[in-house]
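User: As part of a screening pipeline, I want to sanity-check one entry by hand. Below is the sequence and the SMILES for zinc ion. Please return the complex as structure tokens so I can compare it with the automated output.
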Amino acid sequence: MADTKTDIIIVDDDEISGRLLKDLLRQAGYGTYRLRRPLDLLLAVRRRKPRLVIMDIVLRGVDGFKLLKTLRDNRETAKTRVIVISEKSFDFEKQQAFKYGAEAFISKPFNVETLAGQITHILDGNKFNLAALGGGMEEEEMSETECEPSDLKDNQVRTRVWGCRGLADSLANSESAWGRQTSCVSVETKDRLIILDGGTGIVPLGRKIAERGGPKDIWVFLTHFHIDHIMGLPNFPCLESSAFTLRIAGAGETEKRFKDAVRDIFYASPYWHNRHPRAKLLMYEIAEDSYDLAPDFRLSAMHANHPSPTLCYRLEIAGKKIVYAPDSGLVGDPYSMQAYDEKLGAFSRNADLLIHDSCFTDEEWRQRPGEGHSSPSTAMEFAALQAEAKNLLLFHHDGAYSDETINQMKTKAEELAKENRWSTICHAAKEGFSLTLD
Ligand SMILES: [Zn+2]
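Assistant: Here is the complex for your manual check:
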């Protein structure tokens, strides 16, 4: 039995790296126990109840993944936190590791200087608890180019619209005050940048980021794979520079993993024929759940009422709550089963900013109920009564609508709010629109 508390069990039958791991973690103050016989893992976890298991998957006489699965299949040990550390670090091994609930994959040889820090980061809860498909926790490559400092204060969050249109039947080339680019929104804090959807608006956004020289570590959350939400992604300027790390996250499709679906976007673009993006790309397949991505940044996802696997996102960041539901068909009828409206209402409750689908006019919305979109009046009523949001941003204007139609839609929603004395402030998305929450 252990005479001192075991924080970490190490399963690595390579003498050199096993011993090194143990020494490094001991020096960092952890009670460590190195398991001599990997097959005893289940027993050891039951007895010692460690905070973490660090394990290689290439072990003599036993498949590491089978061991990991044994932990998961046992009720008592199913929730054990595990980090896989291995020399065998092909995408396949990483996928398997995350499939069996590993929180991170560290490639060997590991960095002796930073390893203990990485482990502490994960143990303290700042973990990437996503089912990551591509990434590990390797040190990130950073360029010499400094990022220009942000003009935002610690508690400020700025949301900016780079594209807010759906796709027209034929590409409209007339000028529009609302803009013609498709869905893309940035959410920015003093030191973080998050991109919502990769419609064509992501291209001008990427140019701005490149000009500013950062931020270099960027989350991109895709709601779904309808073309207007992804078509700009292959031309995102930051892909050209190895200084950038893009963490692309979204839902997988029924028969396609998220990673493969993103890869297909790149394959479908002539731009990447025979070339590979230079930026570091990390893919994260996410489900309807909440993920703590940093101490001040929590992401939650919920399935949207929209054809194909589609997510809505809630960002809780720097003390603000922003909900992004660009493709979301509200039921809107108080006499029908309103499970979706209620669920989304709870998900968006008290949002500082709710960005919601108002694709169709009220009249057209009634005629096209099966398309998973909403209208200005339904979105306004939902924002005020169900979500009780402070601000509503009407979003995803139909690609074929004239400026005049969109003006009327905005006016209609504003009047509805005024008549009912709702306190939710109504805005309509427009390229260049920005709102800074204090
Ligand atoms: Zn869609």
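Points to compare against the pipeline: The radius of gyration is 24 Å. Residues 224, 226, 306, 327 surround zinc ion (CB under 6 Å).
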